[in-house]
Design goal:
Helix 5 (89-98) crosses helix 7 (127-149). The relative contact order is 0.14. The protein is an all-alpha fold and 180 residues long. The longest helix is centred in the C-terminal third of the chain and has 23 residues, at 127-149. It has one domain (2-178). 61% of the residues lie in helices and 0% in strands. It contains eight helices and no strands.
Length: 180
């Protein structure tokens, strides 16, 4: 399988420039399916098994930087009408698990939850903008929540068909009405 071979090469023989080029070769778009994500995760899982901790952190950091610049398509001003995922979610979970502290991860989660709470008090140009605001934050929340729930074992890192909602929003009728 080419993905397994690629993961091994990235883990053992690739330079930091090669790792960066690999990350930037991955198309980032909002996914609701899982097929391309599974293929990339297969490569990154093999990478995780074979790479040194420092090499792993280099790749996770490169992926996180690329992913945050993309901002779930926010730079293109596309609307989001449901929870979306990206091809780099496995690497982002690796970043959250291995590159930042539990306290920092909690701080990021709390900021996302606070952003979601602001939905009803922020001005939005349209209902589509309000819906996008909600789902962008909820989509970002998916990855960090999954990182918290997954084990140190990388075979639990791929986020598949999960949908996490912070507890305080489970019965929030106002938010449900806004994002229908």
């Amino acid at each position: 399988n080419i993905q397994i071979s690629l993961g091994k090469v990235l883990a053992t023989n690739a330079t930091n420039e090669n790792i960066s080029a690999y990350i930037k070769s991955i198309a980032l778009n909002n996914h609701t399916d899982n097929e391309s994500r599974k293929i990339i995760a297969e490569c990154l899982f093999e990478f995780t098994k074979s790479a040194s901790p420092n090499r792993r952190k280099n790749l996770w950091n490169a992926a996180y930087e690329y992913w945050t610049e993309w901002d779930l398509g926010g730079v293109s001003n596309d609307y989001i009408f449901n929870v979306v995922f990206s091809n780099l979610d496995f690497a982002i979970i690796g970043y959250y698990k291995e590159c930042i502290s539990d306290d920092k991860r909690l701080e990021i989660k709390e900021n996302l939850i606070n952003n979601m709470q602001l939905l009803e008090s922020r001005w939005h140009r349209s209902s589509s903008s309000a819906t996008t605001y909600w789902y962008r934050n909820l989509s970002l929340y998916q990855v960090i929540e999954h990182a918290d729930r997954s084990t140190e074992n990388a075979d639990t890192w791929l986020l598949l068909k999960s949908y996490y909602t912070p507890e305080k929003f489970h019965k929030n009728k106002y938010n449900e009405m806004l994002v229908r």
